[in-house]
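dumping this here before i forget
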Amino acid sequence: MAFPAESAGIPKPLDRIELGKTGIKVTRVAMGTGTVGGPHESNQTRAGQENFTRVTRRALDLGINFFDGADLYGSMPFFNKALQGVPRDKYVLLSKLRGQNSAEQAQKDIERFLKELGVDYIDILLTHCATTADWAQKRAGVLEVLAKAKEKGTIRACGVSWHGMAPLTTIADTKWGDLALGRINHKAIMMDGKPDEVVPHFKKIHEKGKFVLGMKILGEGRIKEGDEIDASLRFVLGLGIVDAMTIGFEKADQVSDLLKRWEGAAREVAKAAA
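structure:
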């Protein structure tokens, strides 16, 4: 077992690590907002703006700077309100286009996203939920829109998320994109395959230089017990190929609990690897 190469010693959840060569520095933990997400809502948004703001501000106060939203979750307007008054350089926003977007729709959506978020640029924008091995060919127009938006500075980085083994097998060999967002946990809950099936592909993606952001670490809330949360964190950290994790916090106290559990899990992994 080994930790990611960019880490010196035990990786801590609030380490600021660079996303590839983009210059963007994010914490290893992101606040996710897509628990049971879609269409245009999630557990985080269904709980209301007051709770959403409380969780967001707790994450900020504890040192998290990475916030993960999507059009599918309807969370961008919530982030707009929750982050009002916070200097723009103090947080990193990730959002996602709907997977079926045409190039023309993608361009319109980027303009809408900027307004919904109330920002001049989006740090990271993904094409969402690739489902076929030839996703890059089918979405060529969308990928071009994202590449041009990056050149323009409307977005700072781009990438892809996927559902299914078919797209996962081709992510590493697709040169386009800075970040890959995929589902991984020790129990194969809400994943594309069993751990021994998906891990080799995650490893290849990481080795090809893409920033790997893990999701469904807690199985979209299905991994609830403390010992199982710890086991999943140990598993993902022990792989050494997942750069950061997005966690769908639904309550403010879950943020500090996860950060403590991460540090404990990281120490155990380091001890086992020594």
